[in-house]
């Protein structure tokens, strides 16, 4: 087998592609496994009080490079203070990452723009939540 001779820059580029695609396949496999667990009733939920602002900030940070690479503007509008909610933080982060990744993939690139915002629903305010 002949090994192609590549300069350092090309090797780095191809290695980056391999790593990115490996991570994508791992995420896809994990999502299929999660779906199978949910359908069988064997999914484990780890609910606790969480700060939704923090979930969104972490999610946006995780995908911000994808938006930069695709030259899509990502705007974020989050209130300073919101009441905590009880949920599975990891599952919510997974949902947000999926939504944001899809938004980046399916947005117009010139001029692409995705806006993320968070607000307390009126019915929650009325209930004291």
Structure description:
This protein is α+β, with helices and mostly antiparallel strands and 129 residues long. The chain contains four helices and four strands, in the order αβαββαβα. It has a two-stranded antiparallel sheet with strand order 1-3. α2 runs parallel beside α3 (89-105). The longest helix is centred in the N-terminal third of the chain and has 33 residues, at 8-40. The mean pLDDT is 85.
Structural class: alpha+beta
Oligomer: single chain
Distance between the termini: 65 Å
Going across the biggest sheet, name each strand in turn.
Answer: 1-3
State the total count of DSSP E strands: 4
Give the helices and strands as they follow along the chain.
HEHEEHEH
Furnish the topology, listing elements before pairings.
Layout: H1 8-40, E1 47-50, H2 52-69, E2 72-77, E3 85-88, H3 89-105, E4 112-117, H4 122-127
Parallel strand pairs: 2-4
Antiparallel strand pairs: 1-3
Kindly list the characteristics that best describe this protein.
single chain; 129 residues; alpha+beta; two-stranded antiparallel sheet; two-stranded parallel sheet; 4 helices; 57% helix
Concise synopsis of the structure shown:
57% of the residues lie in helices and 16% in strands. By secondary structure, it is an alpha+beta fold.
């Amino acid at each position: 087998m002949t090994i192609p001779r590549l300069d350092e820059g090309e090797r780095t580029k191809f290695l980056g592609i391999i790593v990115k695609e490996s991570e994508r396949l791992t995420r896809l496999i994990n999502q299929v496994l999660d779906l199978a667990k949910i359908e069988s009733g064997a999914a484990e939920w780890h609910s606790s009080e969480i700060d939704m602002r923090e979930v969104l900030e972490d999610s946006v940070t995780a995908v911000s490079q994808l938006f930069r690479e695709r030259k899509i503007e990502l705007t974020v509008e989050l209130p300073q203070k919101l009441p905590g909610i009880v949920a599975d933080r990891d599952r919510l982060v997974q949902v947000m990452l999926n939504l944001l990744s899809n938004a980046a993939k399916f947005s117009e690139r010139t001029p692409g723009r995705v806006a993320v915002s968070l607000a307390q629903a009126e019915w929650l305010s009325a209930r004291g939540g």
